[in-house]
Amino acid sequence: MKFSPLWFSSIFLCASLCCSVEDDFDYDYYQFEIDNLIFIDENETSFTSGDTIWINTEIPAELTDVMGDSYNLNTLTEQTELSYHTLTLYERTGFVNPAVISLSESEIIVEEGLVNLSNEFITVNPIFNGSVYSSRFGVVLNATGEYYFASFYDTNKNEIYLDSNNNTQVYIETTINESNSNNQYEFLVE
In sequence order, what DSSP letters do the residues of 46-107 get, joined into one string? Predict the structure, then answer.
């Protein structure tokens, strides 16, 4: 029996289309749910124009996941030092939807960690300091009004992600301490 090169090639083509391709990476995924990892100094809710509101994030290195298992974040991520989450500052208006407040670099004071601004959100990068991932920054309140901080998507939870030096994904759902049932930290500037 004689086999033509076309017939022989079609066997390999069929095999490559029929067989599943294996992923190059096998990711480990860890999810944690821990309330109040984000908090405001002294839970202040009343400010005067020109005051600074201080926002903190503290993530312990030892966490228990949703299944009840304890983990060390440094071990999971192979000693990464960086995590991140987003916040958005909203102003209540006379309309149904609040206004998103865009901040400038001159309105942000960073004491610990890193903070990056976009038109609509603040990216907060708590840095591992030997025992916790932590950040502390202030927002100078230049205008009077009713405001609140919430997650970028104005959902009930904030989402914190940890970078890793391996194929591990670490995700933490948290809330802002003393926030309302929608995870909005409300405050007044007079």
Answer: EE-TT-EEEEEEEEESEEE-TTS-EEEHHHHTTS--BEEEEEEEEE--SSSSPEEEPP-GGG
